[in-house]
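Exercise 7. Predict the structure of Transposase InsO family protein from Oligosphaera ethanolica.
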Amino acid sequence: MRGYGLGERLRWLDVSPCKICAWRKRRGASNRHGCNLPHANWLLPWERQAIIDFYLEHEDEGYRRRAYMMVDQDIACVPPSTVYKVLKKAGVLRRKGGKKSRKGSGFDQPDAPHQHWHIDITYVHIAGRHTYLTTVIDGYSRYIVASVLREHMTNADVDLCIQQAHERFPNAHPRIISDNGKQFMSRDFKELLGIHGFSHVRTSPFYPQSNGKIERWHKSVKGECISSKYFGTLEQAAEVIQGYIDYYNMERLHSAIGYVTPYDMLWDRKEQIVAEREAKMEAARRNRLGQVAG
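Solution. The predicted structure, encoded as C-alpha cells:
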C-alpha cells in the first residue's frame, strides 16, 4: 500500500475519516456494545403478570392503593408509577371520571391524632325506610372513633355518639367540628362537650366541603358497603356497617394519609410502614437486576 495517501486507503476500505478519529479517541478503552443493559427497574415476566392479575381481582380499588397492597402482601414490590405503566400497556387500566374539587382551604390541618374530631349525620336507606348514621372521625388519622345507626335523628343519638367516642379515648380533648345542624346547636350538646372538655367549631353554612373528611367517609361507607347490600332489619345493618368500619380502620389503605390504614396512622406507624415498603422494593430491584443480568 506504499505510495498511496491515507485518504485513498480509507476510500478503498470504505471507512470515513471521522470513524478513524473516533477509533483514535477510544484507543485503550474496553469494547462496548450498543444493546440496552439490564437495570434494576426492569420487571420480570412473572411480576408483570402478578400485577395484572392482582389488579383484576381487586376491581374496587385504585391502582395506587393496589400497588401498596401488593408491596404489603409481598406480591410485587414496585412503585405505583410502575404499576400504572404495566396496566396501561396491558390495556386493562380503568379510569374513573372525576370532577374538579371545590374544597376550600378549610381549617389548619392537625399534625397529631385527637386534635380534630369531625362529626356528622347522613341518611341511610334500610329496609325501605330512612335511618340515620352518626359518625365521629379523627381528622388526622381518618380513624372512625364512633358510629351510631338509629331510626330517628335526635339530640340523644348525637350525644350517644360523642359519649362513645369519649369512652374509647378518655384522655383525648379534641376540637369537635360539625355543620350547623340543629342537633349540634342544642344546649344538651354544648353541655356534653363542656363536661368532657371538648371545644366546638361549626363549618360555614351551605358549604359541606369544609367538613370534607367526614363527607368522604359517607361516600365510602355508602359506595363500598351499604349500596351493594340489602338489609332486612336495623340490627342487621348495624352489624354489617360495624364490620365495614373495622375493615376501614384496620385493613383498608387510605389514599389521603399515604396509603396506610387509619389504625396505623393513629398509632404513628406510618414511617415504619413506608420504610418497610422501600426496603422491600429495593430488595426486589436488586433481585430483579441479578436475574436479568444472569
